[in-house]
Amino acid sequence: MHQNRFEYKYGMGGIDYPDSLDKPARTMVTSEHTISRTTHVIIDPGNGRERLLTPEEAEQINTFPEGWTKLAGVTDSERFFTMGNALVVNLVRDIAIEIDKIAEGEDDFTRYRGNRRVQNIEH
User: Fold this and answer.
1) CA 94 to CA 99: how far, in whole Å?
2) Which end of the chain is more exposed for a tag (fewer CB within 10 A), N or C?
3) How far, in Å, CA of 94 to CA of 85, rounded?
4) Which DSSP category does 53 fall into?
5) pTM summary value
6) Which residues contact 56 (CB under 8 A, 6 or more apart)?
7) Which of 38, 43, 48, 55 is nearest to 18 (CA)?
8) Distances in whole angstroms, Cα of residue 39 to Cα of each of 7, 29, 65, 69, 70
């Protein structure tokens, strides 16, 4: 450790292999389209064999509508990368709703956001 600096210790815990379909999914990462320690591998319920996620399943993990990243000229690798950079939409919405409730309890909440309200937007 250097003077006026803090040394961060970083480590990853264990990762289930294959990923459980009965538990919440792990966070998507930008390298999802490659084979690595963090790649999601599941047992296909249809045939019982191991497989990687589809781009649509990656969208579902982040609560995007199916096909959200399917655009002309966008590869599956780019779709996975996009989901690895994305936030879980419903989680962000739920946090915003809770922040809105807290702001409602403030005496002068207009200093935080004027008269705007958090909206529940369905895709």
Assistant:
1) 9
2) N
3) 19
4) P
5) 0.76
6) 66, 67
7) 43
8) 28, 8, 22, 19, 20
Structure confidence by residue, pLDDT tens digits, 40-88: 999 999 999 999 999 999 999 999 999 999 999 999 999 999 999 999 9
pLDDT at 120: 60
54-59, Cβ contacts within 8 angstroms, sequence gap of 24 or more: 55/79, 55/80, 55/83, 58/28, 58/32, 58/83, 59/83
Helices H / strands E in the chain, number of each: 4, 2
Burial 66-87 (b: 16+ CB within 10 A, else e): eebbeeeeeeeeebbbbbbebe
- DSSP annotation of 51 reads E
